[in-house]
Amino acid sequence: MFTKVLIANRGAIAVRIIRTLKTLGCTAVVVYHHEDRHSLHVQHADESYSLGDGSVSDTYLNQTKLLDIAQQSGCQAVHPGYGFLSENPDFAEACAAAGVVFLGPTPQQMTDFGLKHRARELAEAAGVPMLPGSDLLDDLTQAKHVAEDIGYPVMLKSTAGGGGIGMQLCTNEDELISAFDSVKRLSANNFSNDGVFIEKFIERARHIEVQIFGDGQGKVTALGERDCSLQRRHQKVIEETPAPGLPESVRESLHRTAIALGESVNYRSAGTVEFIYDDITQAFYFLEVNTRLQVEHGVTEQVFRIDLVEWMVRLGAGHTLPLTEKRQPQGHSIQARVYAEDPIKDFQPCAGLLSRAAWPAESSSEEQPSVNPTSLRIDTWVENGTTVPALFDPMLAKVIVTASDRETAIAALHSALSDTDLYGIETNRRYLLSILSDSDVQAGRLWTQKLNSLRISDPSIDVISAGTQTTVQDFPGRLGYWDVGIPPSGPFDYYAFRLGNRLLGNTDDCAGLEMTLTGPVLRFQYATTIVLTGAQTEATLLRDGVGTSIAFNRVIDIQAGDQLDCGSVTGAGTRSYLCVAGGIQCPSYLGSRSTFTLGQFGGHNGRALLPGDVLHLNDTAQDSAHNTDSLSDDSLIPTYANEWQLRVIYGPHGAPDFFTQADIDTFFNAEWEVHFNSSRTGVRLIGPKPEWARADGGEAGLHPSNIHDNAYAIGAIDFTGDMPVILGPDGPSLGGFVCPATVISADLWKLGQVKAGDKLRFIPVSHENAVDLARAQNARLANLHEAKAQISDDHSAYRLPESPVLHVESCTEPKDKTNTEPNDTSDSKAPA
Questions:
Q1: Nearest-CA neighbor of 77 among 67, 90, 87, 85?
Q2: For the residues 763-770, what does the mean pLDDT come to?
Q3: Torsion of CA 778, 782, 787, 793, to 10 degrees
C-alpha cells in the first residue's frame, strides 16, 4: 500500500478521499488555492501545500506545480478526483514519467473516450446500441444535410465537451444554423477542440449510467446503474440508484453492454458508461463514457457497501480486487447536489461568506441496521464562516440518503434538506425541495427535460441598492452578554420598530430593517405585507411600471415583482424601519438576529446590506396579512423634531463627589447640540464644560471624568473627558467614565432619531415616574391606543435629590474563620 497519496483536487471530493486514505493508513497530502486555505480539505489533511493565488490554470490545473509537490512530499500516487485533471491524458502520462502512479484509467482510454466521435466508434465496435448520428462535421452545409436525414429534433455536440458544455438542442434548421458557430467556438475555447457532431434527440429520454470498474487486464464489473435524468441545462441535480421503473431485462442488458464495452478496451479503474433510455420503446442508446470517478459515485457506494476510492487506491497499489464477485444493491440511495447558486436568477452562481452552514448529523445503516434502516451521508467542504470563491464550481455539498425503498429515501432526503441551514449566499436548497415534492419525481416519472417546466417561488427580497447603513435588527436585541463585552444592539428607535411589527400582527422579536437617512431599493419575489415606520421618507412602490407613494404606519400589500424604493428622510429624524409579515429570516446568533456591525456578527453576515444581497421571508408570510391591526389612534405616532426633551434619572454620579453643584445645574439647564460624530455606538453632545469637583481621577486616570469599573447602560450619559456621550445600543459595555444621568427606558427611542445639529435638553424625573412611563408605553403598543390613565408630562415639580447615592451598605469580613473547614460544603446551596 502507498504511504503517501497526493489529492489533486479540492472541495467535497478531496474531503472524501482524505477520509478513505486515512482508513487505509495512507498519509493524505492536499494542495490548495489561496482562496481555499481555510477549506475543510485543508483542515482534514495530514499535509497541505499552497498552489498560490491566480487562475485555475495557475493552480489546480498546473501540472508542473502538482508533480513538484508530489515529489517533494514523497507521494507515490496521485488521486485526481473528478473535474480538473481527472480526465487529462497528458497529466496521467506526466505522472508516469515522474514515477508517480495516476489513480485512474490509462492515458489512451482517456484520449479515446474523451473524444465523443472516437467513443462512438469504440462503442459501435463493441456492439453497443447507438443513437442515429454523424461523424465529425466539416461545415454547416454538411450539418444541415445530416440533420435532415436523421430528422429533427437533433442535438449538436462538441466532441470534446463535458458537464453539459458544448451541447445545443436544435428543433429546426434555423436553430441549427444559429447554434453551429457558437458551439464550435465554445468547444474551442473550453476544450481546445472545435470538432462537432450531431445525434438524434429523444424528447422523453432518461439518462441512465452504469458504474463500471476494471483491473486493466480484461476483467470488468458493473456496479449497478444510476438514474441521472433530473438535470437543468444538461447539469445533473439529483441522482439515484437503482433506476426506478426499469424492467429487469433492460437493467441486466445495460449492465452486460457496459461490461462488454469496458472489456473491449481492457478498461482500468473506475468509469461510467452513460446511456439514453427511451421509456416508451424501452430501448437504450450509447451516450458517452466518463473515464473518472463521478460526482454521484456515492449512491453506488451506499447500496453496494463499497468504497470506490479505496478500490482505485488498492488497484493502483497492485492489489487484486474482487471484481468477479456478484453484488446486489441493498436498498435505494438518492443524492442531491447542493450548489451556491440562485435558482430565481437563472441559477446564477453565488460567491461570498457562508455565515452559517448547519447540516443534519450523519448516520449509518451499517452500525444499527435494525434500529436505523435509513442512513444519511453528507460530502461537503464548507462550514460556518466559509467564504465561497467565485473561481470554481459552486457545488457546496452532496446530501445522500439510503433507505430500504425509494419512497422512504425521497422522504428522508427531503427531511434532511429541510433541516439544513445555509445562510449568507444563495443556494439551490429550496429548489431541491421543490423537485423532491413533485408528483412526477415521487412516482418515478423522470426524463431529462422534466426540470425545464418546474416552477418555484422563493419568499425573498432582492437588494437592488443598499441605502445608508441598512441593517437587520430585532427587538429586544442580544440580551445577557454585556458582562462579556457584547452589547444588545437591536433597533435604535425601538418604539417605531415595535409599532411596525404590532401593526402587522408580528411578534415583537420578528426581524426587520433599520435604515439610516437613505433606505434601500428592494425587489420582492413573494407576495407579502409590509409597514414603514420611523422617520418619514418619500418611499415609492413600483408595480407594472407605475410608481405610487407609500404611507407610513399603514399596512401595505406587496405583490411578487414589486419594487420598493424606501427613499430618503425628508424632515426631522434619522432612522426609518421596514417590517415585513412574518419577519426577515436569518440565523439567530446569541439569541438575536440583530446586526452588530463592529463585532461583525448577527443579522445578514454581520454587516450592513450590500447590493446583490438576498433576504429571505417566512414561507407563511402571505397568511400574515389576515392577522394585522389598523392604527385607529394617530396619537401613537411620535412627532420627530429638531429639538428634543430627554427624560432622565439623576446619577449614578453627581455632586459633590465628581461634579460641583453648579456643574449639575448647568447640565440640566443647558441646551445641548448633537455632534456630527454620532452613531449607534453613542450620541456625542456639544455644550458647556464642567468645572469638576476634583482635580483628576486618581488611580483611574488623569482626567476627573475617569473612574474605575463602571458598567455602562444604554442611555447612560458618560463624560469622556469634557464631552458627554449618550451610550447607544452598539456601545461598549464596560468603561471608566462618570455618568451624571441616564435616559429613561420610555425615551430611549428618541436617541435613534436625533441627528447632527439637533438640540436637546435633559429633564430629570423620579424612578417611580420612569417605571410608570415605561409601563404606559408598553400598554399603548399592546393595545394600539392611548391608555386611559394618562401620565403627566409636567415634571417641573420634581426636585433632584441632594446626592444620586440612594443607599450605602457596609460589608464586613467574618470575625472568626477557624470553624470553616476546607472541605465543608454545608453552605454550598446557600445564595451568594
A1: 67
A2: 94
A3: 30
Burial call 554-587: b when 16+ CB within 10 Å, e when fewer: ebbebeeebbbbbbbbeebbbbbbbbbbbbbbbb
Question: Which SS3 state, helix, strand or coil, does residue 209 take?
Answer: strand
Chain segment 151-191, per-residue pLDDT in tens: 999 999 988 876 667 889 999 999 999 999 999 988 888 88
Q: Identify which of 585, 545, 537 has the alpha carbon closest to the alpha carbon of residue 565.
A: 537
Three-state SS across 577-642? EEEECCCEECCCECCECCCECCCCECCCCCCCCCCCCEEEECCCHHHHHHHCCCCCCHHHCCCCCC
Model confidence pTM above 0.90: no
* Identity of the amino acid at 712: Y
pLDDT at 832: 26
Average pLDDT of 640-662?
94
Q: How far is CA 538 from the centre of its chain?
A: 33
Cell numbers placing 683: 450620541
Beta strand residue intervals within 8-107, DSSP E: 27-33, 47-52, 77-79, 101-102
Residue 186 host element (H or E) = helix 173-191
Name the one residue in this structure whose C-alpha cell is 449497478.
224
Cα–Cα distance for residue pair 272/252, rounded to 1 Å: 16
**Separation of CA 373 from chain center:** 30
Which grid cell sits at 283?
Answer: 430501448
Q: Are 505 and 555 in contact (CB under 8 A)?
A: no
- Kindly state the DSSP code that residue 133 receives in the 8-state scheme: B
Q: What percent of the chain has pLDDT over 90?
A: 79
- C-alpha cell of residue 233: 441545462
Mean pLDDT across the chain? 91
From the number of C-beta atoms within 10 Å of its C-beta (0-12, 13-18, 19+), residue 779 rates as middle
Which residues face 683 on adjacent strands? 726
Q: How far apart are CA 172 and CA 573, in angstroms?
A: 63
Which DSSP string corresponds to 766-814? -HHHHHHHHHHHHHHHHHTS--SSPPP---TT----S-S----------
Phi, psi dihedrals of residue 445, rounded to the nearest 5°: -90, 90
User: Hey, how many other C-beta atoms are within 10 angstroms of the C-beta on 234?
Assistant: 16
Match 473524444 to its residue by C-alpha cell.
115
The SS3 call for residue 426 is coil
Angle at which helices 173-191 and 140-150 cross, to 10°: 120
Cα distances (angstroms) measured from residue 821 to each of 812, 817, 824, 825, 826: 20, 9, 5, 9, 10
pLDDT at site 395: 96
pLDDT at res. 369: 41
Which positions ≥6 away from 178 have C-beta within 8 Å? none
Residues comprising the chain, all counted: 832
Q: Which residues contact 553 (CB under 8 A, 6 or more apart)?
A: 499, 500, 503, 531, 532, 533, 631, 634, 637
Helix (H, G, I), strand (E, B) or coil at 144: helix
Residue 488 phi, psi (nearest 5): -75, -25
What is the spatial distance between Cα 297 and Cα 239, in angstroms, rounded to a whole number? 9
CB atoms within 10 A of CB 610: 14
Ranges assigned E (strand) in 404-488 = 421-423, 460-465, 471-473
Question: Are the CB atoms for 749 and 496 separated by under 8 Å?
Answer: yes
The answer to whether the beta carbons of residues 602 and 589 sit under 8 Å apart is yes
Across residues 491-515, what is the average pLDDT? 96
Q: Which residue in the block uniquely carries the three cell numbers 401613537?
A: 636
CA distance 580 to 530: 4
End-to-end CA distance of the chain: 63
372-415 confidence digits (pLDDT tens):
579 999 999 999 999 999 999 999 999 999 999 999 999 999 99
